[in-house]
Design goal:
Elements: E1 16-20, E2 41-47, E3 50-59, H1 69-78, E4 82-84, E5 94-97, E6 106-113, E7 116-122, E8 131-137, E9 142-145, E10 150-153, E11 155-160, H2 162-168, E12 183-188, E13 193-199, E14 202-207
Parallel strand pairs: 3-10
Antiparallel strand pairs: 1-14, 2-3, 3-4, 5-6, 6-7, 7-8, 9-10, 11-12, 12-13, 13-14
């Protein structure tokens, strides 16, 4: 999988900023992905008007030992599996950074349950009450994988640094001041990236285009 911190970056991207009012880092590392057929889902789906076979690989929460115990317990309680993009070279889609304020250790996870994927954010010390930023059916996040001839999962997340966030905002006038904490890069394989940033009691979204 490509480095999600740079996918979708442009020197001067076209942007759309939306503020979503919700109340209120290193990528997990691991060995090269092994066979995860026991955790895969497959079937037929239609993408771009064409119907084909799809396959989505998942990893169990135990594949991410760096997760805090309380967060792991909540993910397991929800029945989460972690979907992997077709470019994955190691466990992905579990990240941490300072998403609420500088110096805090927060976590973001793509959690798949019965074919529905949610982007969850766990603020420090609040494992039982994650923020749900986004939800989509797995079959709505598929793209052709030329290597296999199948439709496969194309949604990935990564930590976005303040510098990366500021670069993504280059096309906004007036341009926002550089943030003092991290955001979340929410990306499509070989496609656009949106950047989530929490400030005060709301999330803002900067959407880039190809």
């Amino acid at each position: 999988m490509k480095d999600w911190q740079v996918v979708g970056m442009r020197a001067a991207p076209v942007v759309l900023v939306v503020v979503l009012c919700y109340g209120a880092a290193l990528k997990a590392q691991g060995p090269e992905l092994q066979s995860v057929d026991a955790f895969s889902s497959s079937g037929q789906a239609t993408v771009g008007g064409k119907t084909g076979q799809y396959k989505v690989e998942h990893l169990p929460v135990s594949s991410f030992p760096a997760l805090p115990t309380a967060v792991s317990a909540e993910l397991n309680r929800r029945g989460c599996l972690i979907p992997q993009t077709f470019e994955a070279h190691g466990p992905e889609n579990v990240i941490h950074g300072s998403f609420r304020r500088p110096g805090e250790k927060d976590w973001a996870v793509l959690c798949s349950v019965h074919g529905t994927v949610s982007l969850l954010v766990f603020f420090d010390g609040e494992a039982a009450n994650p923020v749900v930023l986004k939800t989509a059916a797995e079959t709505a996040r598929l793209a052709p994988n030329n290597a296999t001839g199948k439709l496969e999962f194309d949604w990935g997340i990564d930590r976005a640094t303040p510098v990366q966030l500021h670069e993504a905002q280059a096309g906004i006038r007036p341009r926002p001041a550089k943030a003092d904490h991290d955001g979340i890069a929410d990306s499509t394989v070989d496609g656009a990236t949106m950047y989530w940033l929490y400030s005060g009691s709301a999330w803002s979204v900067t959407q880039t285009t190809e």
